[in-house]
Design a protein that fits this description.
The structure is a single chain. By secondary structure, the chain is α/β, with parallel strands linked by helices. The chain is about 50% helix and about 10% strand. It is built from ten helices and five strands. Strands 2-1-3-4-5 form a five-stranded parallel sheet, with helices on both faces. Helix 8 crosses helix 9.
């Protein structure tokens, strides 16, 4: 699994690299390759050389971009690569805005080393991580969220930032069916938007896992 860390502070990259490569383990003992970039220009070049990058960790403040604009620019460069924000700005408004702009999670740079390690482990396992969330480790996604298998598939793709048309294509569903599933998801989660749905899943502390085999 290839992971791309985009941050303009070499010391932070070095520290996080050591944490990821020497203190984290992936399911099935999968190998982890950490790639690094100091700004979006470098990140684009790295992605061209390694199109199989599975996840990006992105600092919001880089030399060539600042704030949430950094996330929007990266999403334009790599719309199909899930991205988790790393930022010292952990205000609730920033966190929600990052999720609203397509981030799959948010890890504060101010987190203690143990918290950072746990957050990274959750993200690499496919969970959505937001700071200060409740956990439900011993329960299944179905029991915690109350969703059907197909609704979970739609939700998985929603969390990845896929638009409705892409969800339709990947799950071989009509647009009206996808909209019906989304309405049911929002109703069962007690939310009114995609962003709120992502936050609700994160609050449940659940790893949704891969898509079901049914198509």
């Amino acid at each position: 699994m290839k992971l791309l860390l985009i941050d303009d502070h070499p010391l932070f990259r070095d520290g996080l690299s050591l944490l990821i490569q020497h203190r984290l383990s992936l399911p099935d003992h999968a190998a982890l390759t950490l790639l690094e970039a100091g700004d979006l220009t470098e990140a684009r070049a790295v992605l061209q050389a390694h199109p199989d990058v599975k996840l990006a960790l992105l600092d919001l403040n880089l030399g060539d971009r600042q704030g949430l604009d950094t996330l929007e620019q990266w999403r334009a460069i790599a719309p199909d690569v899930p991205v988790v924000v790393l930022s010292a700005d952990d205000r609730p408004a920033t966190i929600v805005s990052a999720i609203d702009r397509g981030a799959a999670g948010f890890i504060p740079k101010t987190a203690q080393a143990a918290t950072m390690q746990d957050a990274l482990r959750r993200v690499l396992a496919g969970e959505v991580y937001l700071p200060g969330l409740l956990e439900a480790e011993d329960e299944s996604p179905e029991s915690v969220l109350g969703l059907s298998e197909r609704q979970l598939d739609v939700l998985r793709l929603l969390i990845e930032g896929k638009p409705n048309k892409e969800i339709c294509r990947m799950l071989v569903l009509s647009e009206s069916t996808v909209k019906t599933h989304l309405s049911a998801i929002f109703r069962k989660l007690g939310v009114g938007s995609r962003t709120q749905a992502v936050v609700a899943v994160a609050r449940a502390g659940m790893a949704l896992g891969p898509l079901s085999r049914r198509r």
